[in-house]
Amino acid sequence: YQYRTMDGFWQSSRRTINDAYVDGLSITHGNPRKHLWTLAVGNSELTSHLEVRCPKDTDPFNFTRVPDFVGNNFYCEAGYETTHEKRTAWEDPLWDGQQCVSSTAQSCSGYSWFHSDIASSQEDIEVRWCGDQVRSDEDFYTDLLEIWVL
Question: Looking at residue 105, what is its pLDDT?
């Protein structure tokens, strides 16, 4: 669930996998870290501020903000439709594919499950809750996260 002014991938193109490169969840494995998936939180679905909304297929500018190491392995959604508010968006859970008005394959293509093939490994999977500002200004709450390794 989104709280206030999340920024998605804002200013992420100059950050590394070891930084808080997204407002959202970073899922990696190994040491050094190797990217598996990112769950990003955009500012709002229809914000006019391109730098803080979820990247759209129809707007190449937005994809310039996604770090190269992420590629297309991300899912992005916002809890607010038109503008962020000073409250938690309890009515629209993040990354569920519902109430999502963006036009990106990565952002609104259904549920946020993902599949990543990696070589057989004993490496740990790491999930980091990332943000670039203080929690009183922006935050997100996670109700459930499942990771299945097959």
Answer: 46
Angle at 102 between CA 100 and CA 106, to 5 degrees: 90
E strands within the chain?
Answer: 2-4, 24-29, 34-41, 74-77, 125-130, 138-140
What one-character DSSP code corresponds to residue 61?
H
Mean pLDDT over residues 129-150, rounded? 85
The pTM assigned to this predicted structure is 0.82
In 3D, which of 27, 143, 29 has the Cα closest to residue 88?
A: 143
pLDDT of residue 114: 67
- Helix ranges restricted to H, 9-150: 60-63, 105-108
**Could you tell me the two tokens for 60?**
């190449």
